[in-house]
Amino acid sequence: MSDQPVPVRPGRKRSEESRLAILTAAFELASEVGYAGLTIEGIAARSGAGKQTIYRWWPSKADVLLDALAVKADLHVPIPDEGDYTEDFRRFLTTSFALGRKQPVVDALRALMAQAQMDAEFGERFRTEFLQRRRDALRIILDRAHDRGDLPPGPSPDTIADIVFGTIWYRLLATDRPLDKRLADELATMLAPPRPTSHSTRRTHA
Fold first, then answer.
1. What ranges do the domains of the chain cover?
2. 114: which residues sit within 8 A by CB, 6+ positions away?
3. CA distances from 191 to 34, 64, 112 (A)
4. ∠ CA(98), CA(110), CA(59), 5° rounding?
5. Which of 116, 10, 14, 118 shows the shortest CA–CA distance to 69?
């Protein structure tokens, strides 16, 4: 095989640029006019892409917005690897909650969850392409901790994910309480307590 780098096809780069422009337009418009006012026509006009291009890549406006949120979550909620479960877990929660406090994100998530209840096919895509994607990100942190041997005894990884994301969705859908740092700290203390440090035993003298 040649050691020369393989040139990137111009068409591939343009396609990715167009995709990101469409996702950006969808998120911006949803923030401005709400989910009900979001249309494929509006996304096409804002992004400069053709309607047929959008429909070729996504079956509905809900799917465009879903993809936009998935990309935003990947960008704003990195998977830390500091070699310490407590630190990694706390950072994941802190960044997840910070994104979940942004009103445009909150509004979009609520709209998509509602759409998922009314449209079974979209609901399945919502579960696999967003909900499971976020669980998988957290699972990487849990699996690393298990492999290092610093995952504390307690709930199973699946139950930890249920607690974390169940808390997020309860706050988003059933209350008006924010996903604040205090809540992130409480969950981190409960689910990822610091490892106890060993102390040398003091010698006593008669």
1. 61-191
2. none
3. 36, 34, 29
4. 110
5. 116
CATH topology of domain 61-191: Tetracycline Repressor; domain 2 (1.10.357)
The residue behind tokens 């070729």 is 56
Q: What is the pLDDT of residues 153-187, one digit of tens each?
A: 889 999 999 999 999 999 999 999 999 999 999 99
Q: How far apart, in whole angstroms, are the C-alpha atoms of residue 168 and residue 4?
A: 48
| Distance (Å, whole) CA 180 – CA 16 | 34
This prediction's pTM: 0.85
Instruction: Give the span between the Cα atoms of 181 and 55, in whole angstroms.
Output: 39
Pick the closest to residue 67 from 129, 114, 119 (CA basis): 129
Helix (H) or strand (E) holding 136: helix 132-148
pLDDT tens readout for residues 101-112: 999 999 999 999
